Request: fold
Amino acid sequence: MPATLQNETRGQTPRLIVAAGEGRRATVHRVTDAPHDPIDLDAIERDLHDVETALNRLADGTYWTDEITGDPISEDVLAGDPTARRA
Reply:
């Protein structure tokens, strides 16, 4: 049986049930009739890693440089994907 966490506050926030899934995936349900998508913890971790890598590249002065070729990464590419590491 999955672990369950319930959070209730009066009035504005609905009760939440978090059921631990397989691996690092969890399912969060509001106690309503509407279905909700599961939260993908692996995807969140990957996104966080990409942001941390981008911040480290910014601190190192390599943010605007393709990490494979050494060519500059255009502002347009970085505007579309601030965590881009390739031109």
Remarks:
- Residues 41-60 form the longest helix (20 residues).
